[in-house]
Amino acid sequence: MIEFNPNVPIYLQVLEYLKKQIVSGRIRLGEKLPSVREMAQRFNINPNTAQRVFQELEREGLAKTERGIGNFVTSDTKLIQDLKEKMAEKIIEDFILAMKEIGYDKEEILNLLNKKLNGEE
Fold it and tell me: What does each of the 121 residues of the chain score in pLDDT, given as a tens digit?
């Protein structure tokens, strides 16, 4: 379940959550997504908000609607890989910016990352 941030539109938070589920493989390529009603109940959101999430997924090419059948995640592996790389780049950029704001330089950031990645500290 998502703990919604009151400063960010809910549809964007649900959209981001679903994108993470898709790129991580928790929602598989070609998998059927819940209906608008199921999505609204699952996230405790308005059905119109859930519909907007599906529209955005479809607009970005991440999902397609099969009339009368439902919404499905794309099977385009390149699109998903590209999205995954974009999301990773954004996370890294935000991390580096935050570290620089608190006074770390490149070498210090790399040292800290190495320690964490190697399970030190």
Answer: 789 999 999 999 999 999 999 999 999 999 999 999 999 999 999 999 999 999 999 999 999 999 889 999 999 999 999 999 999 999 999 999 999 999 999 999 999 999 999 997 6
Closest CA to 95 of 83, 81, 112, 80: 112
Q: Coil, helix or strand for 72?
A: strand
Q: What is the pTM of this model?
A: 0.86
End-to-end CA distance of the chain: 31
The letter for the amino acid at 114 is N
CA distance 4 to 101: 26
Continuous H helices in the chain = 10-23, 36-43, 47-59, 77-101, 106-117
